Amino acid sequence: MGLVDAFDRLRRPFEGPNTIGNSRAFWVGFLVVLVGLVGYPIGFGSYAASSAALYLLYAMLALSLTVIWGYTGILSFGQVVFFGVAGYSFALISMNLESALTTMLALPVAVGIATLAALVLGYFMFYGEVRDVYVTILTLVVALVLNTFMAQTAGSEWTVGSVALGGFNGIPAIPSLTLGVGGAAITLDGATFYWFTLAVLVASYLGLRALVNGRFGYTMVATREDEDRTEMLGYDVRRVKLLVFALGGALAGLSGVLYATWGNYISPSVFGITFASIPVVWVAVGGRRSLLGAVVATVVIEWFRQQLSATGSQYALIVVGVVLLVAILFVPEGVVPRLDAAIRGARDRFGTSNDTPEGTPE
Amino acid sequence: MSGKRSGLSRRSFLATGGAIGGAALAGCLTGGGGSGGEETVTLGIIEDRSGNFALNGTPKYNASMLAIEELNEEGGILGNEIETFAPDPQSDNQRYQQLTRQAINEENVDALWAGYSSATRETIRPIIDQNEQLYFYTTQYEGGVCDSYTFCMGATARQQLGSVLPYMVENFGSDIYTIAADYNFGQLSADWVRVLADENDANVIGEEFIPLSVTDFGSTINNIQDADPDFVMALLVGANHTSFWNQRTSAGLDVPMGTSTVMAQGYQHKRLDPPAMANVYGGFNYMEEIPTDRNQEFVDRYYEKFPDAPYINEEAVNNYFSIKMYARAAEAVGSTNQADIIEELETGMDVSAPEGDISLQGPVHHMTHNMRVFRCDENHTITVEDEQLIPEQFLSETVGCNLRENEETTQYVPADYYEEADATQE
Amino acid sequence: MNALNLLFQFADNFAFVVLAAVGLAVIFGMMGVINLGHGEFIMIGAYGTTLSANAGAPLPVAMAIGVLVTAVMGFVLERTIIHRLYDRLFDSMVATWALGLLLTQGMRILFGNSIPQVSTPLGNIAYGEFSYSTYRVLLLPVALLVLGGLYVVFTRTEFGIRARATIQDPDTARALGVDTDRMYTATFVIGSALAGLTGALYAPTLTVVPGMGSSFLVEAFVAVVVGGPSVLLGTTLSGGLLGTIDAVFTNLFGTFYGQIAMLLTAIVVIRVLSDGLTGLVETVRNRVEGE
Fold first, then answer.
1. Is the CA virtual torsion C109, C110, C114, C120 positive or negative?
2. Which of A1, A227, C60, C150 has its CA 20 to 30 A from that of C127?
3. pTM of the model
4. C253 — contact with chain A (CB < 8 Å)?
5. pLDDT tens sequence across B333-357
């Protein structure tokens, strides 16, 4: 009994009405899936793991949007701005200081730069009382400004230190992340990169779960539901939005660094309108109020799009469009929340469960 | 209440189940999939057939398929039938990354043809180099790639401009105004215009760089009129820039224009009503209208296989002859071992291509091309005004790239070697 | 910097911004639906026009066909998909994005990567050593006509008054007997027809390819947001401001700076004026009236 009690106490901070899966069964399932994910490279090889790692780092980008959109009501097309800023920063820093230690140094600095950018943009928007839809368009415009600007930095005068920005062609040969020093250094590649990304994703997911189920999480949701009321109750709504936006920027930035080191490449296309719209699609289909939904939807959608593209069929994009349309029309709250509701409904009908009721506040 | 909920959940299961089923089915439809072992030869052809570059990528795919079909009819390579892995990257660089890795790791392609734009090439070159994969990049481009595993089959900017610019100076005068797409290829080509102007006693009296997204050329046309050059070098790229030609004609701008980008790639002379492309002179290694018998036979074979195709563009033909060249190299070596084939190619090879008799410059992995100056008149009839074999010079003569002796994966730019090309020196 | 050049370039830019934005402004301003497939609606209008003209129809007829085709498509899409999304603003974005994807790829499958283009009619206006396409300059009065027409429809006709009532307060409008569903459909059809008109008007002077919609989308969104809540006033003022900025900066420094300046202006306006340019006009008007 002591073990089960410990398990229940352990999972308490991660549960609440703001997330799906608040039962022992969920966490057991979660652990099973996690073990499977960890074992994936062993079973399927390093190439398959590397492909999967891309989907996992995209899932981090989706999480960054879920936290600011689903939980705080800020729809931003500009997550890719922080994604790209961090990616470029990482490239410029790590390629200018050429030693094995520097990639581990460049990663937090790059994420820091992205967070700073988010703080600046967030301050500009939220302390300037820019509202809802205008925030959305403004973030999109910022992405497009960066796209236009970076695409023309092809000349040799656009060099930071010894690294050319590369314009439209981007920056190739970005070094992979290297953990450790000297003889014990591991360059993250293939399976090791996959495990690193998986660890970062799981840590982010759990961290966000704890956050949204805690006091600050309730403030975020209150801001989403009714800003004026929250303000009247004494919360500084602008500060809440700024902090959440900065957090979103940090997560997107982390995802960006992982992307740059996955493909050893970055280019202005990450600021383009297509890539800026994709996270919105992932999160909308997965369920914008669900962290789990964002992760699952991103992985499934990206895997699906890749498979279709590999067929070479001209109907690939048609299939993607139709599936998206169907998902958004008939499963508006998101696929994962719908599945969760269905599972709970089935459980309710087939007898009571032994678990504590979800989300009963203390 | 619960009954209603389960009813809705059934619908959602159908929706998501349908999606998953569709994905599984799509997975089964993944074509190609040769193991690349001793019994099959698998070639990777990753060309855009949808998205922004579909117009340029589709003919490349078509011509590749034609070449492979012709090879298979004659027994394939080393007695084995050629199989293909030919996905559609949808003009999306992230998709290119995944598909290139899939081609190398899962499909084990023996050689890879991929990408239209230079950005795509640079996206996948790290993957190519890491995996030491034999890669043919077949679009005409800015030049300068000295890479142990990459063979650039297209004409470089120096070759293209080197054929048309001297002709324009000779026939129209020495004041040049350059308008170029505002990204790497356009800016580097403009650098080459300055280098070649210097070599031909001409002057670039003005330069204008136009972002790829611009569709409105009113101010550009006014600027050209203000500068009053003897001729214009128009290095415009993409669908948006194609709007320039209609606009300049309706504005009555009739100064002659030289180009290395329009007509041979995007067949504007067939899409736009005459006289939109009147007085345009292009320096290319290939246009469908080349009046030789050999080319005419090739064109006939192409349209027999693809009767609905609108045009055969420059880069498509580069795919065609390079696939045949690869086949000959493999036969000469006796296997599909990529390192051996690269070594064989580095000894150079003469190629009989639809454009004429050309050759591979082994040490620099580039082609000497049969360049021609094509003129488009007011009825959109294409005539050949000048013709010469032009080798690749930048890497072989100026930079001194020699991949037979050194392993390298660099791209060189003219600004590092020519004072005239360095914009910061203005 | 030549004054006439600047004037014509401004006329060109103003018309482009207004015509790109007006269809989107009607749909967004009156129904709150963010149509991410707006560029593709314009593309359909351009395709309808070009294909009809290639089949032999005279240009004005071909344009009318382009508008009609887009309006019909708008009607069908509204009845099947859009009307389910009126209270779901964010979902309408994803749905219209998916629609845009389907339209682009669908046209590519049906008609290939390119179709023969229509040439620009009407020659040019020559002045000194310069000249400008007459057709492009004429798009300015056309844009003004479109705005004027919308004004008349929405303020002087019964339909317009009912439509505005529906937007302002759907419940009261319904209580007063207005068929709000029909109003929404009609408004969406008008917005689609306007997008089709833009495509039709620009078909002779831009490249008509399946992906052409994206070159309108940015300017359209920026203009709608900079303009603010009022469809007519906002779009006109946006066109004026953004058109001027683009023309001046392009004339002085080149097209790249014109684009960047326009985007940066949009950012500044969105930040400084919480209701866009419409809000600015309202504030000024209130202050003047208050005196």
1. negative
2. C60
3. 0.88
4. no
5. 999 999 999 999 999 999 999 999 9
